[in-house]
What does this fold into?
Amino acid sequence: MITFPNAKINIGLNITEKRPDGYHNLETIFYPIKFQDALEVSRLENSDLPYKLRISGIQIEGDKDSNLVIKAYQLLKQHHDLAPVDIHLFKHIPTGAGLGGGSSDGAFMLKLLNEKFKLNLSEAQLEDYAAQLGADCPFFIKNQPVFAKGTGNLFEPLELSLKGYHIILVKPDVFISTREAFAHIHPHAPARSLKEIIQSPIESWKDWVVNDFEASIFPKYPEIAAIKDKLYDLGAIYASMSGSGSSVYGIFKEPIENIDEKFGGCFCRQRELE
It folds into this structure.
C-alpha cells in the first residue's frame, strides 16, 4: 500500500508570547501544497524484526529509528495488533525547510496503517495519536487549510482557497534549527489578527502578512532574503519564508518558465495550488 505525504506552507507567522514552559505561542496559517514524498508499506515476511525501513531520495541525517514513520508505527503497535512491516520512504520534501515534511510522513503513516490493518480509527483518534508525534502532525490528518495557534497545535477551520494560483518553492543549501530560529525572536501581539487579514485580497498580503522569523533570519542569512526579493522581481503576488525556514515561496498568477536557471544552486520546484 502506498501513500503520498504532502508538504505545507505557513502563510504568515506571528510569535505572540513566550510561555511559562519555555515554548512560544504563535498564530499562523497552514496551507497544504501538492509537493510530496512517497511512503509504501507492505507486510514483512519471514522476519523476527517488527519493521524494516529503507529511505531513498533526499538524504536524511540521523538514526533511521528516530524517523516519525517508525515512531508512528510504534505508537499504534502499543494499542493495536500490527504485523511486522516493510517500509520504503522516498524523500522529496527537503528537511529543515519549514515545510512539515517529517510531520506529514508521520501523520500519513498513521492513516496508512489505519487503512491497511483495518483499525477503524476515526479522524479524531488519528489526530490524538498524531499530536503525540509532534505539534503540527495533526494538521496532516484532515490536510485542509487551518488557522493555527497555541504552539501550532490548536486548529480552527479556515475558508481559504488558492486554487488556480502557482507556487514556486526555493530551498537554499542552508539548515536552520528550531533553536536558532527562536533565539532572537521578540514576541509581540500583532495589531491585527492573521485570521482577519487573510480574508483580504491576496494582492494586499504583501503589506500585512508577515513571518516574524524573517526579522532575525534574514540579517544572518542574506541569501534567503535575496530569494524572497527575486521572487517579487519575477512577479510574485506574495512571497515569504515558510515557518522557521529556510525555504521561501512565491505565489504567482501564472507559471514562470526556466525557474531552475533563475535560482541556480538551490532546490527549486513549481506547482499549481489546489
Remarks:
- Residues 101-116 form the longest helix (16 residues).
- Residues 26 and 180 are 17 Å apart (CA to CA).
